[in-house]
Amino acid sequence: MDSEIVIELINVEKSFGSQKVLDRVNLQVRRGTTLVIVGASGQGKSVILKHMLGLVRPDAGQVKVFDKDIANCSKSELKEVRKSFGVLFQNVALFDSMTVYDNIALPLRERTHLSEAEIRANVEEKLAMMDLDKAGNKFPAQISGGMQKRVGLARALVLDPSIVFFDEPTTGLDVNKSNEIYRLFYKTQAQLGYTAVIVSHDVPKIFKLSDHVALLANKQIQGCLTPEEFQLSDNPHIRSFVETTMGPIYSSEREESSFYEKV
Amino acid sequence: MVILKSVMLKLLEKLGYESLYLLEVTGRMGIFLFSCLGRVLAPPYKLNPIIRQIHFIGSRSVFVILFTGTFTGMVLALQGYYTLRKFGSEGLLGSAVALSLLRELGPVLTALMVIGRAGSAITAEVGIMRNSEQIDALECMAIDPYKYLIAPKFVAGLIAMPLLTFIFDVVGIFGGWAVGVGLLDINQGTFFQSMYKAVAWQDINMGIIKALIFGLLMIWICSVKGYFLHLDRSGGFGAEGVSRTTTSAVVLSSVSILVWDYLISAIML
Fold first, then answer.
1. Which chain A residues are Cβ-neighbours of B125 within 8 angstroms?
2. Which of B125, B129, B140 has the CB atom closest to A82's CB atom?
3. A83 vs B148: CB contact, 8 Å cut-off?
4. In chain A, N or C: fewer CB atoms in 10 Å?
5. How distant is the Cα of A87 from the closest Cα of chain B, in angstroms?
């Protein structure tokens, strides 16, 4: 049985000036699953994410998170919904005038009534989880891009959120660093059981981590399918995307005519 | 005729566009101010961020205030002495220096110096946080940026500006005393007696009210400019956007302070 829907976009439309970016976008994310939104650069993948985060309001349509339409709710209601969010931004958005430790401790200091000792224990646990034990006293500018992403992930997870958003989590990282982020994602999701929404163009690697893949093309979601269904889809946009990013998976009739004759 | 009509239409269009933009900016600034003042009053009250901001806006401006205050008092005494001597009223030098400082120069010059030192830094800091999505990150963590980031600056500005103004006034008076009594041989008793007779509580009150309003104006304009950097019509992107916005925040807050200085003086005198 399908799990409960936690995020639902219903006929979302958004334009910036005269440029329409999203046109009747419909999408669902189910509890405990991982949805990956893929698409060519500049199609508006991050805009979808910003709608889910309540950072951008749609021109039309609904953005439901836990059944609350965050596109049409008050700031205090939105703040309440966001308490269950964790976000890893594309450029990480660490507070550059704070140390790594303070970056991770900030949500705990501002959102909980924990003592400094409890905060320290919690932050150190997260630092260890991300293999950042020795980086606590450093500033974001003093650590590598891969480490910054791990700090961002630690900060996103420090309050045990039920939904975590990843905007291009591996952009700018080499293969090893990317694999490290994916490993940490896999490990933490298994531990904490959060729902994940990932915007990525790291295809096909990201497919291995996803339960559903949605392609944004031509201002619309061209099917939200399991990775296997996605790769076999007949939708011309999906097919073109799969072929462009992964190469042709299946041979054409012309190349293997004998096979097609038998069928 | 057709050309004239099209020119008129374009002019009207431009006028409408500018008016709408002005309304939008004014409304945005007004909502920002009331939101921030609301957050100042709303719990939880955290002392540490306020103390940090008082240190940044206040303590770190003390040296520059001591320096400018002393020299302002000195030049006031020098200019005042040669002007008053024409009328044989050198004895009023103490009152002239004190009244000029307490009513006008103290609050205005303190505010201008603090804008240059701390106001510009506030715009740049908040603007860079906006540009690098740090403010978005706060919002997504359900941390209110107004409460966390801006409200402590308002409190600190309202506390630091009057205190810095007092320091400016005091060192200015002593600078005036050093030149008047030390260099120009005015009798010390006459200098302070004329000051004692001329200065009323109303003059001091005017200085305090001005310092409070200038503190509010500085924090308001410098913060709002950085906070809404991304909505700037001239493009608030990148380092150039931050630099342009910082310049415009300094200019706007300095001009606003001079305008409000006149208005407050006109009302209170």
1. 97
2. B140
3. no
4. N
5. 7
B148 touches chain A (CB under 8 A): yes
- The answer as to whether B37 is a domain residue is no
Rounded to two decimals, the ipTM of the complex is 0.84
| Subunit contact A111:B134, Cβ cutoff 8 A | no
Question: Which residue of B125, B133, B140 is in closest CB contact with A85?
Answer: B140
Following DSSP, what letter does each residue of chain A receive, concatenated?
A: -PPPEEEEEEEEEEEETTEEEEEEEEEEEETT-EEEEE--TTSSHHHHHHHHHTSS--SEEEEEETTEEGGGS-HHHHHHHHTTEEEEBTTB---TTS-HHHHHHHHHHHH----HHHHHHHHHHHHHHTT-TT-TTS-GGGS-HHHHHHHHHHHHHTT--SEEEEESTTTT--HHHHHHHHHHHHHHHHHH--EEEEE---TTGGGGG-SEEEEEETTEEEEEE-HHHHHH---HHHHHHHHHHH---S--TTTTHHHHHH-
pLDDT of residue A263 exceeding 50: no
Q: Give the CATH number, domain containing residue A230.
A: 3.40.50.300
Residues in chain A whose Cβ is within 8 Å of chain B: 53-55, 79-80, 82-83, 85, 87, 89, 91, 93-97, 106-107, 110-111, 155, 159, 165
**Residue B70 lies in domain:** 45-268
Segments forming the whole domain that contains residue A29: 1-33+42-84+203-263
Residue B143 touches chain A, beta carbons under 8 Å: yes
Write out pLDDT tens, residues B155-182.
999 999 999 999 999 999 999 999 999 9
pLDDT digits (tens, 9 = 90+) for A62-90: 999 999 999 999 989 999 999 999 999 98
Per-residue pLDDT of chain B (269 residues; tens, 9 = 90+): 788 889 999 999 999 999 999 999 999 999 999 999 999 999 889 999 999 999 999 999 999 999 999 999 999 999 999 999 999 898 999 999 999 999 999 999 999 999 999 999 999 999 999 999 999 999 999 999 999 999 999 999 999 999 999 999 999 999 999 999 999 999 999 999 999 999 999 999 999 999 999 999 999 999 999 999 988 877 667 888 999 999 999 999 999 999 999 999 999 88
Asked if residue A130 is part of any domain, the answer here is: no
